[in-house]
């Protein structure tokens, strides 16, 4: 398939910041479109996502690629680095995003084969959404656990835009407060997940003083998480200043290796997750952590991590959402660890 025939493109790039993206020709055999963002080209076949850039190529299994792309899109490129695997990924500069190949792989960097380009976040998000939409077939949900969805393999077969355009929960103050994101229920389309059938669904009784009905609230967090229809998708459920509580349900494998740009606290609420922790820059292993219910750990700002959970588990991710932290860590005014023993 030729990868040079552009169907549309944005305006030419400004100096140092790429803004040229394009939808390329459709493959006559598979029915999938190819895409281009700057000098990076993306195509897929029945089994694989195929990436190319000046001086290099890379292949990922299409299920791995789509699950990672789903998180990158849904999270708005998240905090820091989203490694799709050990080669390809993105870095969030909060308004701008770097796409890289080999940036955090010591073999690539030692050989001088790493490559990267920087984009306006909105431009890159547009083409990433187009890739996700075109490459996700009917019946496959890249947000779901493998046993809860179909397969991504084969030639082009419809789409699943309803699944991939779910809106991530981002409470302004707290889930359940009047005017904020609602508590999940059967009535609003969130049944209890198959692995959480034993979780109690009763809600706390709140008796607020008159005049404080919109200020005092509570809800059953375990019941709320038992009704999550996605995995590995931390949603903002309470906000106090820059302090964000982002609980989530986890099953199978975190689809990305998350490279932190700040410390990140994990409170294991149920069951267990095994974490592989690696050096952020080189990818070399640093630790393996087994988190069981009640355990608390802090992921430092200089690592990447990926989790594994057989039994669907509940995890509370505690984030400091301050936009100042990455610069403070870079200039040494904030530590890469929360506690220095």
Automatic annotation (TrEMBL):
Domain Hydroquinone 1,2-dioxygenase large subunit N-terminal: residue ranges: 28-169
Pfam family, one: PnpCD_PnpD_N
Keyword Nucleotide-binding: no
Keyword Oxidoreductase recorded: yes
CDD domains: cupin_HQDO_large_C
SUPFAM superfamilies with a match to the protein in the record: RmlC-like cupins
GO molecular function annotations of the record: dioxygenase activity
Keyword annotations: Dioxygenase, Oxidoreductase
The name this protein goes by in its record: Hydroxyquinol 1,2-dioxygenase
Species assigned in the record: Sphingomonas taxi
């Amino acid at each position: 398939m030729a990868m040079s025939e552009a169907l549309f493109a944005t305006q030419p790039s400004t100096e140092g910041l790429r803004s040229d993206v394009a939808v390329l020709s459709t493959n006559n055999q598979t029915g999938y479109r190819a895409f281009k963002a700057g000098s990076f080209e993306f195509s897929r076949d029945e089994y694989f996502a195929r990436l190319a850039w000046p001086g290099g190529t890379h292949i990922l299994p299409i299920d791995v690629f789509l699950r990672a792309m789903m998180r990158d899109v849904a999270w708005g490129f998240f905090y820091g680095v989203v490694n799709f695997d050990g080669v390809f990924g993105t870095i969030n500069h909060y308004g701008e995003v770097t796409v890289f190949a080999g940036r955090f792989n010591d073999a690539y960097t030692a050989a001088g084969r790493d490559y990267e380009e920087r984009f306006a976040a909105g431009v890159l998000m547009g083409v990433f959404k187009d890739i996700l939409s075109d490459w996700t077939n009917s019946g496959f949900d890249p947000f779901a656990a493998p046993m809860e969805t179909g397969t991504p393999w084969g030639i082009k077969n419809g789409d699943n835009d309803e699944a991939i355009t779910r809106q991530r929960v981002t409470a302004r103050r707290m889930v359940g407060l009047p005017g904020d994101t609602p508590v999940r229920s059967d009535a609003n389309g969130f049944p209890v997940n198959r692995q959480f059938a034993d979780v109690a669904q009763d809600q706390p009784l709140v008796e607020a003083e008159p005049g404080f009905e919109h200020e005092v609230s509570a809800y059953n967090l375990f019941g709320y998480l038992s009704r999550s229809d996605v995995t590995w998708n931390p949603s903002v459920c309470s906000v106090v200043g820059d302090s964000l509580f982002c609980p989530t349900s986890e099953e199978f494998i975190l689809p990305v290796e998350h490279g932190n740009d700040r410390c990140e606290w994990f409170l294991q609420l149920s069951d267990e997750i095994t974490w592989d922790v690696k050096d952020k820059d080189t990818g070399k292993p640093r630790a393996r952590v087994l988190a069981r219910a009640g355990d608390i750990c802090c992921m430092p700002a200089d690592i990447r991590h990926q989790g594994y959970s057989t039994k669907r588990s509940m995890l509370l991710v505690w984030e400091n959402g301050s936009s100042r932290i990455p610069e403070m860590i870079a200039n040494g005014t904030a530590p890469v660890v929360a506690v220095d023993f």
